[in-house]
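User: Design a sequence. Structure:
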């Protein structure tokens, strides 16, 4: 019965993949989930970022080595005191509604990100105290304090430029018909089914756009995504399951692309937000320690991912500049975990673990459930689709959740948004003023060694408090049609659509 049901799902998805367009010049990309929003001001999901790359250019881009390179800004210069950043903007750029991209458009976007009640960019841009229009294609960002991670923010959603005309007209509904200055323009969205974009003929880098239409299709099931790729219904699929790698390599119709990742998986624990935080796990750092001690990260990696990922307990990958070698991955210590649970006076500690519909997440959750169960935790797994999961996180209606962070080139953007008191994805409202002070000093330090020391001090605090339990760093895998040329894998896991070509 299960085999028959899976076959029906694969067949149905294959039909759906063919439905949006019969045109030969269409690129179909199978993504893990439906984006929560198409508005960069409101976004907090990695799936959103995958789609943004198709239609919403940023001031600064990242290359495949995570170096900052020009996009809508062609050059940038720091002031000697680190209190201002001057951006020289690309000329001849227009938004997809025909309005010009210029310094005033940049000023408007920063104002929107910093003041709109629905914006999730406020924390990222908090040090920017003023945006000065120097001339039609030059802006200066004046800062209240030195802020080294600013370039990383401008290479992400805070640097995505939207049409002021469309944003004023639509307000918090901008995501229903987004207008940016990217290579493709929005056509339609059918929730949980497809998002369609057509080539933007006035794109500033039009020569790099080799395909007329892109369709993003949310397909949570790894097997269905893979089957549609192999059958020709999709030309790109993201997040290939490690267990499917050998299948891709043996099929001449497709090929595999891979990149080491700065992204990671993490368990978020609600410690301080609403009634859902008032649980044994949310209230006790000791029980959170017991939970972590019950886990064997190496075994999770082998059982769930055939050893393809990197077990880790920190937001920076092992061997990187900001990884703290003094706080290595703790081995499983079941005896200590049991002792802590026993000392709490509870025979069984109930825990509800919230996960997405991603089959890999479900697999990891089941392994965690079994391991923690041996220590005295009664783990209940609750599965929900991405939009509902995000709503639960925002409202604080969760106890523990398995989440992904796609990673950033600057260490501040890999940890502060989780643990700072005002962090934009600090879903469980963990707050430690001492930690905030250390993170503030790390953001202001220009010297790499000084920053590394400060982030190590920060790690000593949040790793002991355990509002988050980091599990492993990813490796990104994409499945590609053999007819697709020009794909460049990036460590942030984002699909860049410029430069792609489809052969007939």
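Assistant: Done.
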């Amino acid at each position: 019965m299960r085999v028959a049901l899976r076959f029906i799902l694969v067949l149905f998805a294959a039909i759906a993949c063919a439905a949006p367009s019969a045109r030969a010049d269409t690129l179909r990309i199978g993504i893990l989930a439906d984006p929560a929003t198409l508005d960069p001001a409101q976004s907090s999901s990695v799936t959103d970022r995958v789609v943004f790359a198709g239609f919403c250019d940023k001031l600064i881009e990242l290359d495949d080595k995570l170096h900052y390179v020009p996009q809508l800004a062609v050059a940038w210069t720091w002031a000697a005191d680190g209190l201002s950043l001057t951006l020289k903007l690309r000329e001849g750029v227009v938004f997809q509604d025909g309005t010009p991209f210029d310094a005033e458009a940049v000023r408007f976007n920063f104002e929107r990100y910093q003041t709109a009640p629905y914006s999730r960019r406020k924390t990222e841009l908090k040090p920017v105290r003023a945006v000065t229009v120097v001339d039609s294609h030059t802006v200066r960002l004046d800062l209240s304090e030195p802020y080294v991670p600013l370039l990383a923010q401008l290479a992400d959603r805070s640097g995505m430029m939207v049409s002021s005309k469309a944003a004023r007209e639509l307000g918090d509904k901008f995501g229903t018909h987004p207008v940016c200055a990217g290579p493709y323009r929005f056509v339609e969205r059918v929730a949980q089914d497809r998002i369609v974009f057509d080539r933007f003929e006035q794109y500033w880098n039009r020569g790099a756009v080799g395909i007329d239409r892109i369709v993003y299709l949310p397909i949570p099931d790894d097997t269905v995504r893979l089957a549609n790729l192999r059958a020709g219904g999709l030309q790109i699929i993201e997040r290939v399951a490690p267990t499917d790698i050998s299948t891709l390599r043996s099929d001449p119709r497709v090929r595999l692309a891979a990149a080491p990742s700065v992204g990671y998986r993490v368990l978020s624990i609600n410690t301080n937000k609403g009634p859902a935080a008032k649980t044994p796990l949310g209230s006790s750092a000791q029980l959170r320690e017991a939970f972590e001690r019950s886990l064997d990260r190496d075994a999770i990696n082998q059982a769930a991912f055939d050893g393809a990922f990197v077990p880790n307990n920190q937001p920076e990958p092992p061997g990187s500049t900001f990884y703290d070698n003094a706080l290595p991955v703790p081995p499983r210590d079941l005896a200590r975990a049991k002792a802590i649970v026993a000392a709490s006076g509870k025979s069984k500690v109930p825990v509800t673990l919230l996960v997405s519909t991603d089959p890999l997440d479900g697999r990891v959750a089941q392994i965690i459930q079994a391991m923690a169960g041996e220590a005295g935790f009664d783990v209940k797994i609750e599965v929900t689709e991405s939009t509902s999961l995000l709503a639960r996180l925002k409202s604080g209606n969760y106890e523990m959740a398995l989440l992904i962070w796609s990673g950033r080139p600057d260490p501040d953007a890999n940890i502060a948004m989780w643990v700072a008191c005002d962090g934009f994805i600090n879903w469980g409202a963990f707050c430690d003023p001492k930690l905030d002070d250390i993170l503030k000093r790390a953001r202001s330090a220009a010297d790499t060694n000084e920053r590394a020391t400060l982030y190590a001090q920060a790690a000593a605090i949040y790793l002991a408090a355990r509002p988050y339990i980091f599990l492993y760093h990813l490796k990104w895998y994409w499945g590609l049609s053999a007819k697709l040329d020009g794909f460049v894998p990036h460590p942030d896991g984002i699909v860049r659509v410029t430069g792609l070509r489809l052969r007939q």
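The first strand starts at residue 26 and ends at 31. Confidence is low (pLDDT under 50) at residues 1-16, 18-22.
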